[in-house]
Design brief:
Shape: elongated
Order of helices and strands: EEHEHHEEEHHHHHHH
Distance between the termini: 51 Å
Largest sheet: 2 strands, antiparallel
Number of strands: 6
Mean pLDDT: 87
Structural class: mainly alpha
Low-confidence stretches: none
């Protein structure tokens, strides 16, 4: 189905798409609170052209079913896209643009934000985690992008987010963060914070390469974790 919706060829019935449902909900929601409709993904030449009536002064989403949904004054649509290769000048001129280079943002904003949201039980270990991040992410990115093959090319932010998601899941499971009782000593927590980080690093950064590359990263991560001086 398209994101706006689709007709069933056999029954000629209209089914709302995810965008139509989101916009309809936003227009009927409490007007004392701003509503955001976020579209995250590549721009498609067809559906982005259909958004022109939404983005201009009319602020109306026109569906193929004949229904017109008018956006409320507190509704804002935001597009988070990789590029505008297939977007027409008419579409681009209707939007306010914020262009950010990944290299300018860096990965540290991701880890800093993640550390700020740590559960209270392990907040005291945020500094230890930041030291682990600082000592490994840049060199692991260098290895993944230059020293081994990547069958599927990914960017640094994608890898760091994978690391953080996996690290969160491992910490939550092993330290039983969802349970009300804390049965772990400070020393046990410190050890688990360290060991689980390396496990998350292996399965996040290490998953992007082939079998041969995994062998290279295996030895490299062992040296990194042991604190040995790294060879060029």
């Amino acid at each position: 189905h398209g994101i706006n919706g689709d007709f069933d060829d056999s029954t000629h019935e209209w089914t709302d798409g995810i965008l139509a449902l989101a916009v309809r909900y936003a227009t009927t929601a409490d007007r004392s609170k701003r509503q955001w409709v976020m579209l995250d993904g590549p721009v498609d030449a067809v559906w982005i052209e259909n958004m022109n009536t939404v983005l201009d002064d009319n602020k109306k989403l026109c569906l193929n079913s004949g229904e017109i949904i008018k956006l409320s004054p507190v509704t804002t649509m935001m597009f988070e896209v990789e590029d505008l290769a297939v977007a027409s000048p008419a579409t681009v001129s209707r939007c306010g643009m914020v262009f950010s280079e990944q290299i300018d943002i860096g990965w540290r904003v991701l880890t800093a934000s993640w550390c700020e949201r740590l559960p209270e039980r392990i907040k005291d270990y945020a500094e230890q985690m930041q030291i682990l991040f600082e000592g490994s992410i840049d060199v692991m990115w260098e290895m993944c992008s230059r020293k081994v093959k990547q069958p599927l090319v990914v960017n640094q932010h994608w890898l760091v987010l994978n690391l953080l998601h996996l690290y969160t899941a491992l910490l939550r499971q092993d330290l039983k963060l969802d349970e009300p009782k804390d049965d772990f000593s400070a020393k046990e927590k410190e050890l688990k914070v360290d060991l689980l980080f390396w496990l998350a690093l292996v399965w996040s950064f290490g998953c992007t390469t082939d079998v041969e590359g995994r062998g290279v990263l295996n030895g490299f991560i062992r040296e990194l974790a042991s604190g040995q001086p790294l060879q060029e």
